[in-house]
Every structure is written in C-alpha cells, then in structure tokens.
C-alpha cells in the first residue's frame, strides 16, 4: 500500500548568550560539573528568575528574519513535569502566548526553492544533563550536572508541512545556517546547540485527514533526522500494511545503532499543567524594540543567494556555496567590492580560499584575517593583468596562509613579478625547443595542442614566473622561424 | 463536584505523592468539600473579567552580563543527599524502553 | 514576669541607645533572650536559634539605623551562614541556604541582628502554626490558644518581647492574622514593594514579606529600610516606594470605608466591638466614616484556594530529594520522588498540593484555575471601586479572637475561612495592616485591619498610629511606647 508521510518538527536552538536565560551564571559549555550554577538555575528554595534581554533579542532576530508576527505582550508559562535534571521540576517556557508566530523558512532543495511554514517560536530554558549508566554492571545511578540548566533555548515548531525525511534534513541544515548567520547560536549539533524532535504520521496519498502520530526524540544530527524518520516511516508502514493500528507513542532514536525504541514509562504519561509563570511579568516587546532589531538584521542568506544569481550572474551552485556562511559571503562581497569581477571572485573564494580553509582547519574568520578580502582582490587583479602568473598567485596564497603577511610584499620578496621581456625569455624558449625535438615535430605535423606542453616546459624552467602569453608568442615565432 | 478515589490517585501520581490506602477516601472527601465550596465562584458574573495572571509590573529585563556570584560546586553540592565527586547522584530513571 | 531595662523597648529606642553607646548590641539582643527564658519554653515561637551565632552577629553588626536591634524572621526566609531554613517542614530538615534573601541582606546591612528563625505552619500553609514539624507555637496571652498563622512564631516572639521586630510572609493573611491574635502590628505591604527573592515561595502571585512590630513607628522604620526594587525579583516595582516618614501625622481629613455587611454574621461580638471602637476613635481623630456594602469574603476565599494551591503545587515540586533535603532510600527515580515527598510533607501541605494539581490538570484548568483568575480580576475591581469612595477600609482581621489549639485542625474548610477578611488584599495586591487594640474581656488581644489601595502604606500607618494612641495624642504623646499589657502566662 502506498503511504504519504506527514511530518512536523520541533527544533531547539541553544542561544549563544554570555549568561543564562534567567540568572547571571555563565552559559558557556565545558565547565567542570556543577560549577556554573547559582540558587536560580539550581532551583534552590526562594530563588526567582529574571529574563535575559539578549535572549529575547535573539528570538526577535530569528522571528523577524523568518517573517513571524511578534507578539507585543507574550507570557512565560510553567510546564510541570518531574525529571532529575530539571531543577525546579517545571520548565519556564511559553505556552499559549508565544513571542513569535507564523513565518516560514526558505530552503533550497535539489535546486528548487521551497518554503516551510512555522507555527511558532518561543523562548525557554534548557535542562541540566543526566549521565545514565551505560553498560550492564555499571553502578545503577545517574549523575546529574546542572551547568546547562537555564541556558536559553528557542523552540521553533513547524507546521506538519514535510512529506520526505530529506526535506526535514534540508530544513534543519537551513535553520542551522540561519542561526549561525544571525550569530545567535553556534549551531553545533554535536554539542546539542541544535536539537530536533519530530512528529510523524502516515496517510493514504492525497488524503486530507491525518493518521495517528508518533513522536521521535533525539534526532540530533541532520543525518539522524533523515535516518530516524526513514526508519519510523518504514515501521509505521509495516504496521499499517499488516492491518495493524499505530499507537500514539514517544520513540527514542539511537543514532549509533540506527534503532528506534518505544518509551513506555509512567514518566511519559504527561499532563504538563501549564499555567502563566507568576514570577515573571508579561514580556512586553514594543514597536521601537522590534524596529530597532529589524534595522540591524543582516540580509538573510536566501536573499543573498538570489541576488548573486539575479544581479551578479553567478550560477545557483556558486551562490549556494558562497552563502553557506555569513563570513564567507561577506568575504566574497568584500572581494567584489574591491573591484573584482563576481565570477572570478567566486572562483577564487570557492577553490583557492576554501581549499586553504579546509586543508588548514581554519575558521573562515581566521582565514579572512590572514588574507583580507582586499589583498585577495589585489592578488586576483595582479593575476588577471598578467603581472604575476597564476602559479605565482598560488605560491603567494600558500605563504600568506602559512605565515601571514601582505601578498604584495610576498610578490616583491620572492620576485614573483612575471618575466615578460623577450630578451629574458628567448633563451629559455630555445632551450626547450632544443630539448624537445619530438613535440616540436608533432607541432609541425599540425598538432596544435603540443604548444601547450611546450609552454608548460618553459614555465617550469622559469620557476612559474614566465608570463605565459609572452612565452606562447615567442614559441610560435621561433617555431615559425625554424620551419 | 466530587473527586473519587481514582481521581485522587491520578493527581497524587502527577504530584509524586503517595496517599496511603486508608487515606484516599478521606482525601477524596476533603477535596470534594473544598471543590463544593469553590463552586461559589459560579455565582459571580465574570463575563467581562479577563484572567489576572499576576499583579502587573513593568517588565524588568536583565542585561546579558555573567557575574561572579555563582555558587562554587562545593556550595552547590553541600546539601546533596548523595553525590559522586562534583555530580549529584540519583537512582536511574526507569524508562521501560521496549526496542 | 521577667523584665529588664531594655526588654520591650521599641526598635527605634534600642537603636538610638546602641548608637549612643548606652548599651551594646550584645546586650540589646540578650535582653530579648532574658524574656525568652520565661516565655519560650511554653510558647515555642523559635524554630532555630544559636547563642554563639547571634553573639557573633551582634558583635559584627555594621553601623546603621537598626544597629544592634534583634529581629526574628520566619523560617521560610533564606539566611546564609547562621541558621537552617526549613519552612517548618521535614522535607527541608537541616537545610542551610547558601544565600541571603534580599530582605535579610537589607536587614543585615542596616545593622539588625538575626536573633532567631521563627516557627511557622509548614510552607506557610495554615492559620494557626499548628502544622509545623517542630510542633505548635502557643499564644503568649493564653497558652491553650493558637498564635495564629502561618507566621505564628515571629508574631508570638515579638509579642512576648524576644525582639521588637519580626519578618513573616503573608500569602492570605499569614502576617496580619497572627499579629492580631498576638496583639502586635502586622503589615502586609503592596505586592511588589518588598522583594520575594529568598522567600521560599508558596503562592508566588500572592506572597509578600510582612512586618511585625509592637509599635507603629517601628513598622514605618522597618518598611522604609526594606521596601524598594530588587533586580533579583522581576515582580518588584521599579518606582521608589512611598514615603512613610509621616506615619505620626494623624488622620485628619482621611476617610475610611465601613462595609458593615461583612460582619453582620459569623463574626464574634468582641471583633465587632473592636471595629466600633476603632471607628469611633478614628472619627474622634478627624477621619470620616463612609458606609457601603462590599463583596462577601467567601468569593475571595474560594478564589484564593484555587490560585494559591495551584501555584503551590508547582512551587513545591522542587522538593524532591535530588539536590537538597532528606532522601528516602529508593532504587528508581519515581519512588525517590514519591517516597521523599510523601515522607517529607505533612498532611496539610499534601492536601493543598493535590488540590492545586487538580485545579491545573487537563480538563479542569478552565473550570477552576482560569475561573479563579477571572474572579480575581472581579475582586480587584471591587476594591478599586471601594477606594474611589474612601482612603482605606476598616475591616476585621479574623472573624474570631485567637482560637483553641486543635479547634480547626480537623476541618480544613473552617481553617480556610479564618482568612476570609485578609485574603482579599493578597488577591488584589494591596496593603493591609493589622492594628492591635488592647485586650478583650477574655484577656485575648483584639485587633482591626486597615486595607488601602496600592502604595497606601503611609495612610495605613497614619491610621494605625492614630489607633495606637486611641486618637488621644495629647494624653499619650509622642513618647508613648505601649499602652497594652504584656502577655500574661496562664
């Protein structure tokens, strides 16, 4: 039987604020256990929350860039459930009056522009971390560290708009790019900065009704989302095809073993008893704040991609790669801004610069410090004008990324200015012709391509410094003279 | 309005409280009496009354400045009933995971 | 009767004498403990005390308007480095808070000495201080009777003279009612004027730290030192608190509401007599009586028991045996929670947690919690309308004088109804002041309550002062310290 999957996502984005959501503890990752805690995030008796303005600001940035409606008076609520890494045994979140509603995330999927609609984005606090016994024979205890408790999260809930696991993967990748683009999160899924749960149900294709859904937790990588959903869709399809019924359940995805486990504990029989958080006044976001945030929003990545295609004439492929990160695309724009042709700049950034970034494990920020966009523009200009050869340009890049320094200085120091005087090059040309009688004969026999080989030989002899144009002219002249 | 034994047990589970067998009936009776009493609110005309969720106050937001007043892990763990080095210890969460 | 030169003196007098070097801070603190040697064994107002700790605190008290003045604070205010903070509950047995509540910080900064932590109903749930894991506190005027609650410990201690000042918490009357039963002043300030940071929460939208003192002037002083915004409590008001320095200015030109319909039935004659006397006295002092009917208190009680228990059910979820407090031996987390909580909480706390859990649970939220929050809006409007006609209202504190131990512990509803006149102020977020009015024929303290609009503390204190001197300023004068007798042991 054919089935159509209906999938909705709940994504949690951990914000990169300096302090926690409701207290002044540092929100950093990696401190020793239970050292970034205070009475508030440890849930000590008598402690009270106070909202971190930066977390709200981050939510506004994301909400505005996604076209959400911003609620002027939103309300924090308590979600009540017991869990050992939940200090107060309730989570401060937002419920019926979230900060942002509606909106959509544009995503490019297989060269097609798609847009996945959102239900809401709200602000909440993270829990601590439990470390459960891993192997049989381990002492049957869980260890709890509250350093993460109270770190700000944005929860983003989509409409059930996805039909394919790959769409979900692309959405998550797009969300991660955007969160980093806005610099509101480090977006590192391995560190849990971006986490995802999914609701999935099956129905006959074209049906308007919805089947019984299950919830999958722990889809914490892009691959995991795709694989976990693929597994669950297959599981549900098998149940339905065998004439069975889907039972509402919470499943846990184990990425290491690519397995789903159904959770049937009393702990998961939830009645969250939401009610407005009485310790916090309603959150007022006035029009002035919204406009101020709107005014400093960067151009979103999808708009940039379109602009690169429509106005700079780049292939969509280039635009997508250049807009993978804001640093890269800002860098590219700066190279263009310094007078370089867009396609040329794109080629240099995508091939040469990224090659060094990847090979050296540099961040793009570090790379931009070692080779400022202006310097790259100069280098490209020098290569285009023939002042240096492209081989020399690569040499310059090598040195600049290795040791730093100004490309112009490297050119001067290494004497890389292309040798274009015939008097200087003619001896080399003659040497090459003398040493390569075979190719010379082939050229004479009409095989034009051999000329390239001969040019290469001269270049080699010159240490890559000979201006290829001049070499070619000299070769032709000499070959003609020899005839 | 009355609360029966099952209801008492259900809300006791939610609240993580154990009501001894003999006390369930008494608790059901007492809670039912309180509910009967609060039913008086049905006499009030509340049509134009928005719910008060808290006494309004101007929202005061905090600047994103970490400060040094956090507890040392020693202070944080001082009252812990069970600990192992710098971790709080709890018995395992039984999740009855059925693969 | 144990007496010494300093016992029972107002805080202002003690502070002035310490400042002038007439007595040391240690002597000021120990004068209260001399009284305690007579009273404390029977009254049992104190939950935690430590002679070494208070002596050290007295020695190191910084200069300030309360230098050397002993203060007893309720056991639900967090204090670091001196006493446990246990809320009268087994579930916090031995717990020591690692931080000071904001009001405690301000007290210490003013030079006050924490002389003890006062007994209370467990987690402030009760009106008699009988529901404490340390056993009941008794009324110093009659040991067979309750001191009121839930802040019965500090109220009784201030009454017998352990300290001139006390701090309690008032969620539905827990400062005003014990103040009335013990014959001292009890102020519940406007919601948001005193920081709740470090006050162990019961009903967050209703809780306020409240003040006890034997003298109106001391209430004013304490209020002026503690009120004001706190960056750690987002529900505190940002504006500066009202100025109470004119507490002794008299009531000429003020008007007070007289909602007589509220005490036509179910209120003891002694309570009504106190109201009549207070009204006459305020009129003699130049205030004008405005009679009108007011919404009966049963609605407020019904609203209160839904809102307060709902918030409490969530506030008390953190007591689970994971991070602090005793833990019942368990092999899984579920039984850790259930056993630690079931062994740690007393019956009244469990009852309220269950009620609150029910009021918030799926399917009942609209019928109970949401309806109560609508009713709350209605009640607040009722007060607003009343204060359009008068500056403050004269009300009973409780329908009865101090009742007998055990009289209401078996009937939760009867206990809840003893808050019928105090709960409204908490629902509306407005201030209320319990003013002692001498003793009834039975020898029990009488009192009346003054309730005013938000930030009307200056008005309430002026009226409270007028009643303290019974409107006869000329006879009693400014040097007047007290006119009602010290509690008698029976």
UniProtKB/TrEMBL annotation, chain A:
Span of domain Asn/Gln amidotransferase: 330-479
InterPro entries, per database record: Asn/Gln-tRNA_amidoTrfase_suB/E (IPR017959), Asn/Gln-tRNA_Trfase_suB/E_cat (IPR006075), Asn/Gln_amidotransferase (IPR018027), Asn/Gln_tRNA_amidoTrase-B-like (IPR003789), GatB (IPR004413), GatB_C_1 (IPR042114), GatB_Yqey_C_2 (IPR023168), Gln-tRNA_amidoTrfase_suB_CS (IPR017958)
Keyword annotations: ATP-binding, Ligase, Nucleotide-binding, Protein biosynthesis, Transferase
Top-level division of the source organism's lineage: Bacteria
Catalysed conversion reaction: L-aspartyl-tRNA(Asn) + L-glutamine + ATP + H2O = L-asparaginyl-tRNA(Asn) + L-glutamate + ADP + phosphate + 2 H(+); L-glutamyl-tRNA(Gln) + L-glutamine + ATP + H2O = L-glutaminyl-tRNA(Gln) + L-glutamate + ADP + phosphate + H(+)
Family: Belongs to the GatB/GatE family. GatB subfamily.
Subunit-structure text: Heterotrimer of A, B and C subunits.
Function, as annotated: Allows the formation of correctly charged Asn-tRNA(Asn) or Gln-tRNA(Gln) through the transamidation of misacylated Asp-tRNA(Asn) or Glu-tRNA(Gln) in organisms which lack either or both of asparaginyl-tRNA or glutaminyl-tRNA synthetases. The reaction takes place in the presence of glutamine and ATP through an activated phospho-Asp-tRNA(Asn) or phospho-Glu-tRNA(Gln).
Name by which UniProt lists this protein: Aspartyl/glutamyl-tRNA(Asn/Gln) amidotransferase subunit B
Automatic annotation (TrEMBL), chain B:
GO molecular function, one term: transferase activity
Gene Ontology biological process terms from the UniProt entry: glutaminyl-tRNAGln biosynthesis via transamidation; regulation of translational fidelity; translation
InterPro entries associated with the record: Asp/Glu-ADT_sf_sub_c, GatC
Highest taxon of source: Bacteria
Entry keyword set: ATP-binding, Ligase, Nucleotide-binding, Protein biosynthesis, Transferase
Gene3D superfamilies attached to this UniProt entry: Glu-tRNAGln amidotransferase C subunit, N-terminal domain
EC id: 6.3.5.-
Known catalytic reactions: L-glutamyl-tRNA(Gln) + L-glutamine + ATP + H2O = L-glutaminyl-tRNA(Gln) + L-glutamate + ADP + phosphate + H(+); L-aspartyl-tRNA(Asn) + L-glutamine + ATP + H2O = L-asparaginyl-tRNA(Asn) + L-glutamate + ADP + phosphate + 2 H(+)
Keyword set includes Protein transport: no
Quaternary structure, from the entry: Heterotrimer of A, B and C subunits.
Family: Belongs to the GatC family.
Role of this protein: Allows the formation of correctly charged Asn-tRNA(Asn) or Gln-tRNA(Gln) through the transamidation of misacylated Asp-tRNA(Asn) or Glu-tRNA(Gln) in organisms which lack either or both of asparaginyl-tRNA or glutaminyl-tRNA synthetases. The reaction takes place in the presence of glutamine and ATP through an activated phospho-Asp-tRNA(Asn) or phospho-Glu-tRNA(Gln).
PANTHER family: GLUTAMYL-TRNA(GLN) AMIDOTRANSFERASE SUBUNIT C, MITOCHONDRIAL (PTHR15004)
Protein name, per record: Aspartyl/glutamyl-tRNA(Asn/Gln) amidotransferase subunit C
Species of the source: Eiseniibacteriota bacterium
From TrEMBL, chain C:
GO biological process: translation
Catalytic activity as recorded in UniProt: L-glutamyl-tRNA(Gln) + L-glutamine + ATP + H2O = L-glutaminyl-tRNA(Gln) + L-glutamate + ADP + phosphate + H(+)
Enzyme Commission identifier(s): 6.3.5.7
Positions of the catalytic residues: 74, 150, 174
EC top class named in words: ligase
Similarity comment: Belongs to the amidase family. GatA subfamily.
Record protein name field: Glutamyl-tRNA(Gln) amidotransferase subunit A
Species per Swiss-Prot/TrEMBL record: Eiseniibacteriota bacterium
């Amino acid at each position: 039987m054919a089935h159509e999957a209906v999938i909705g996502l709940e994504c949690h984005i951990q914000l990169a604020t300096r302090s926690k959501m409701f207290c002044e503890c540092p929100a950093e990752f990696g401190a020793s256990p239970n050292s970034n805690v205070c009475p508030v995030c440890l849930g000590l008796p008598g402690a009270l929350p106070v909202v971190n303005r930066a977390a709200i600001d981050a939510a506004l940035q994301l909400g505005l860039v996604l076209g959400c409606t911003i609620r002027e008076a939103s309300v924090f609520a308590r979600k009540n459930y017991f869990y050992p890494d939940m200090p107060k045994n309730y989570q401060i979140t937002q419920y019926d009056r979230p900060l942002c509603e509606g909106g959509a995330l544009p995503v490019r999927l297989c060269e097609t522009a798609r847009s996945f609609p959102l239900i809401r984005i709200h602000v909440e606090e993270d829990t601590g971390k439990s470390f459960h016994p891993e192997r049989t024979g381990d002492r049957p205890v869980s260890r709890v560290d509250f350093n993460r408790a109270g770190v700000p999260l944005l929860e983003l809930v989509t409409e059930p708009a996805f039909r394919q696991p790959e769409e979900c993967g692309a959405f998550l990748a797009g969300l991660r790019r955007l969160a980093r683009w806005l610099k509101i999160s480090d977006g590192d899924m391995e560190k849990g900065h971006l986490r995802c749960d999914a609701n999935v149900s099956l129905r006959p294709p074209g049906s308007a009704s919805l089947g019984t859904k299950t919830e999958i937790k722990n889809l914490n990588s892009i691959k995991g989302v795709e694989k976990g959903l693929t597994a669950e869709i297959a599981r549900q399809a098998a149940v339905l095809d065998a004439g069975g019924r889907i039972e509402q359940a919470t499943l846990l995805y184990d990425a290491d073993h690519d397995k789903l486990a159904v959770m049937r504990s009393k702990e998961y029989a939830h009645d969250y008893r939401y009610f407005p958080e009485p310790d916090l006044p309603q959150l007022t976001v006035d029009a002035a704040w919204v406009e101020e945030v709107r005014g400093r929003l960067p151009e979103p990545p999808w708009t940039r991609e379109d602009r690169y295609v429509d106005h700079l004439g780049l292939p969509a492929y280039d635009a997508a790669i250049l807009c993978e990160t804001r640093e890269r695309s800002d860098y590219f724009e700066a190279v263009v801004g310094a007078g370089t042709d867009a396609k040329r700049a794109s080629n240099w950034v995508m091939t040469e610069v990224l090659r060094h970034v990847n090979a050296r494990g540099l961040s793009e920020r570090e790379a931009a410090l070692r080779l400022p966009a202006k310097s790259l523009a100069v280098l490209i200009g020098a290569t285009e004008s023939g002042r240096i050869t492209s081989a020399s340009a690569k040499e310059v890049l090598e040195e600049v990324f290795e040791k730093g320094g100004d490309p112009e200085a490297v050119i001067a120091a290494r004497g890389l200015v292309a040798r274009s005087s015939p008097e200087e090059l003619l001896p080399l040309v003659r040497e090459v012709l003398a040493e390569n009688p075979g190719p010379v004969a082939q050229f004479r026999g009409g095989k034009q391509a051999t000329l390239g080989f001969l040019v290469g030989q001269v270049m080699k002899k010159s240490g890559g410094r000979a201006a290829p144009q001049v070499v070619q002219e000299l070769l032709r002249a000499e070959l003609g003279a020899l005839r | 309005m009355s609360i029966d034994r099952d209801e008492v047990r259900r809300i006791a589970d939610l609240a993580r409280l154990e009501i001894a067998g003999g006390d369930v009936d008494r608790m059901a009776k007492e809670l039912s009496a309180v509910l009967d009493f609060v039913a008086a609110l049905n006499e009030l005309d509340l049509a134009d009354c928005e719910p008060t969720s808290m006494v309004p106050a101007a929202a005061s937001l905090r600047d994103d400045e970490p400060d040094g007043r956090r507890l040392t892990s020693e202070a944080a763990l001082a009252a812990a009933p069970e600990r192992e080095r710098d971790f709080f210890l709890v018995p395992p969460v039984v999740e009855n995971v059925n693969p | 009767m144990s007496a010494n030169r300093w016992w029972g003196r107002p805080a202002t007098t003690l502070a002035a004498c310490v400042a002038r070097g007439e007595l040391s801070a240690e002597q000021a603190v120990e004068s209260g403990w001399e009284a305690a040697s007579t009273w404390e064994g029977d009254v049992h107002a104190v939950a935690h005390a430590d002679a070494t700790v208070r002596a050290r605190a007295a020695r190191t008290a910084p200069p300030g308007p309360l230098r050397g003045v002993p203060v007893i604070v309720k056991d639900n205010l967090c204090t670091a480095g001196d006493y446990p903070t246990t809320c009268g509950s087994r579930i916090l047995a031995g717990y020591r808070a690692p931080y000071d509540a904001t009001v405690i910080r301000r007290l210490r900064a003013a030079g006050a000495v924490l002389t003890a932590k006062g007994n209370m109903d467990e987690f402030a749930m009760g009106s008699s201080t009988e529901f404490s894991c340390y056993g009941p506190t008794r009324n110093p005027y009659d040991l067979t009777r309750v001191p009121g609650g839930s802040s019965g410990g500090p109220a009784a201690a201030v009454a017998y003279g352990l300290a001139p000042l006390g701090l309690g918490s008032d969620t539905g009357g827990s400062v005003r009612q014990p103040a009335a039963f013990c014959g001292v002043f009890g102020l519940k300030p406007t919601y948001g004027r005193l920081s709740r940071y470090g006050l162990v929460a019961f009903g967050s939208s209703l809780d306020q730290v409240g003040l006890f003192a034997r003298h109106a002037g001391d209430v004013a002083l304490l209020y002026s030192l503690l009120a004001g915004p706190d960056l750690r409590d987002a529900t505190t008001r940002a504006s500066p608190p009202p100025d109470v320095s004119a507490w002794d200015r008299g009531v000429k030109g003020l008007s007070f509401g007289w909602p007589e319909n509220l005490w036509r039935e179910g209120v003891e004659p002694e309570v009504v007599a106190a109201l009549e006397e207070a009204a006459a006295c305020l009129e003699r002092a130049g205030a004008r009586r405005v009679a009108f009917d007011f919404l009966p208190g049963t609605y407020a009680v019904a609203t209160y028991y839904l809102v307060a228990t709902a918030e409490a059910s969530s506030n008390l979820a953190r007591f689970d045996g994971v991070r602090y407090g005793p833990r019942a031996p368990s092999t899984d987390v579920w039984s850790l929670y259930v056993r630690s909580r079931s062994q740690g909480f007393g019956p009244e706390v469990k009852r309220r947690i269950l009620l609150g859990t029910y009021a918030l649970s799926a399917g009942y939220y609209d019928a109970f919690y949401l309806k109560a929050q609508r009713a709350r809006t209605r009640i607040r409007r009722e007060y607003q309308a009343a204060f359009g006609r008068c500056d403050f209202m004269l009300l009973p504190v409780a329908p009865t004088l101090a009742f007998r131990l055990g009289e209401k512990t078996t009937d939760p509803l009867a206990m809840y109804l003893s808050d019928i006149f105090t709960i409204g102020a908490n629902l509306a977020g407005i201030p209320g002041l319990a003013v002692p009015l001498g003793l009834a024929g039975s020898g029990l303290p009488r009192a009346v309550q003054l309730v005013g609009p938000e930030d009307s503390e200056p008005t309430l204190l002026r009226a409270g002062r007028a009643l303290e001197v019974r409107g006869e300023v000329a006879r009693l004068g400014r040097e007047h310290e007290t006119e009602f007798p010290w509690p008698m042991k029976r």
